[in-house]
Amino acid sequence: MIIVGAGASGLACAYFLKTNNAIIIDKYEGARKLAITGNNRCNITNNLPFEEFLLGYGKNGRFLRDTFSNFFKDELLLWLKKFGIGTQEENGRFFLKNASSKKFSNLLKSNVDKRIKIKKFEPTMSVRKLGNIFIVQTSKDEYKTLNLVLATGGKSYPQTGSDGSGYSLATQLGHKVVDLEPIEVPFCSKNKLNHLRGTSLRDIYVTLKLGNKRITERGDILFTHFGLSGPVILKLSANSFKEAEISIKLLDSPLHTVKKLHLYKGKAKNYLAKFLPKRLTELSPHKELQASNLNKKQLKDVENFLSDFSIKVKKCGFKRAFVTKGGVSIKEIDPKTFESKIIKNLFFCGEIVDIQGGIGGFNLQYAFSSGYTVASTINDRIS
Ligand SMILES: Cc1cc2nc3c(=O)[nH]c(=O)nc-3n(C[C@H](O)[C@H](O)[C@H](O)COP(=O)(O)OP(=O)(O)OC[C@H]3O[C@@H](n4cnc5c(N)ncnc54)[C@H](O)[C@@H]3O)c2cc1C
Predict the structure, then answer these.
(1) What does DSSP assign to residue 64?
(2) pLDDT tens-digit readout, 189-225
(3) Which of 28, 147, 326, 364 is the most exposed place for a label (fewest CB within 10 A)?
(4) Residue 192: per-residue pLDDT
């Protein structure tokens, strides 16, 4: 059998296969993305109970009920122990304790490579099925197989190998791909924010305005040379949009601050600098005026600045995105086996499928669980 893609899901699938009569083909050396996950600490899963965990994938989460019944957190943590890797819990999220993501990915690859050959630096260009046989054409060779697994990931961070070419392999075999969109991605802005580069704000409210809809999250943000990043921005990027406005509430109680500001004898910006990064105070209206001299209208301007610092943004694109929304339609995949409902003996696992979770280890848990499910199905069939 052939697995295309030696990332998190493809390697898990290879690891759990009982047969050695298989190869795994990768565009690069494999596991590039796994090696950089979670800031090199790999946020592997989290401690949410089963039903809440499913909600972490939005409406498609129900599709994962069977696969998580086979292989969920306990199984994943036990599996890591086989590599001598423990985990630690931080704010409900599990990270690797005594190994980096890179070390884990190397251990996984070398473990798989003992039994199943990893064909490296061999991008798969096309796939077709003749009778019962899949014909896989790579940049170097042509391979034939009875069982084919597509584990090519999404389209985000293409420098790790997941460049979206897997979707075209799926469509070559007749599958539909649900519209793709970058998520867990920073926001780019044309506004001149360059002078704010490197400025961070902690534990603030950020609202994404989409037409009449308002989505508010609380957390940390970071101004960068291209726009905005940080946990709260990545979270808001789960929403679909092309262009939007975000509103940042710079302080918790702007009205209270402005009342105090009016009693201050110095420049307005010097008072605000007690609560805000200096570079931000430079954007405040009437910043150079003596605060106690500000009139009602001017105080209202400052209050508005503090409560609604608005920026026009768009998503920065797949290159900077952690995850791809969309993918091979789950309507055409059996949730019990991850086999195609259209083509017998064709399987999918990992991010190529239209399943994506939020920040918190959802995507890796799913990648490993789906890899396990595909391996179990094939093991049952060939035993
Ligand atoms: C910077 C970063 C940090 C992340 N951190 C976390 C985290 O901490 N926790 C979490 O849950 N998720 C995290 N994610 C998301 C998570 O890493 C992915 O969802 C997961 O790796 C998907 O696994 P996969 O096997 O489907 O795809 P991938 O891991 O992307 O693997 C796909 C493999 O297929 C190969 N391939 C692609 N096309 C072809 C082709 N045509 N021919 C041959 N080979 C091909 C690629 O080279 C690659 O090796 C992070 C993502 C990024 C970018």
Answers:
(1) G
(2) 987 678 899 999 999 999 999 999 999 999 999 999 9
(3) 28
(4) 64
Q: Contact 367/7 with Cβ under 8 angstroms?
A: yes
330 Cα–ligand 1 center, Å: 19
Nearest protein Cα to ligand 1, atom 46: 161
Q: Write the single-letter amino acid at 123.
A: P
Alpha helices in 56-139 (DSSP H): 65-70, 73-82, 101-113
Q: Is the model's pLDDT at 81 over the cut of 90?
A: yes
Pocket flag, ligand 1, residue 25 (CB < 6 Å):
yes
What is the C-alpha separation between 178 and 167, in angstroms, rounded?
A: 10
Q: How far is the CA of 5 from the centre of ligand 1 (A)?
A: 9
What tens digit of pLDDT does each residue of 292-326 get? 999 999 999 999 999 999 999 999 999 999 999 99
Rounded mean pLDDT of the chain?
96
CA of 163 to the centre of ligand 1 (A): 10
Q: Ligand 1 pocket, 166 CB below 6 A?
A: yes
* CA-to-CA dists, residue 51 to 124, 170, 210, 230, 374, angstroms: 37, 30, 29, 28, 22
How remote is the CA of residue 205 from the centroid of ligand 1, in Å? 31
Q: Which atom of ligand 1 is nearest to the CA of 28?
A: 47
* pLDDT tops 70 at residue 359: yes
User: Domains of the chain by range and CATH?
Assistant: 2-182+321-382 (3.50.50.60), 187-315 (no CATH)
Q: Which two tokens stand for residue 30?
A: 């494999």
CB 287 less than 6 A from any atom of ligand 1:
no
Using CA atoms of 375, 129, 133, 115 in order, give the dihedral in degrees to the nearest 10: -40
Return the pLDDT at 194: 80
CA dihedral sign, ordered 285, 291, 297, 301 = positive
273 CA → ligand 1 middle, Å: 42
Ordered strands of the 87-90 beta sheet = 43-46, 93-96, 87-90
Q: Decide: 381 and 373 in contact? Cβ < 8 Å.
A: no
Per the CB < 8 A criterion, the answer to whether 32 and 161 are in contact is yes
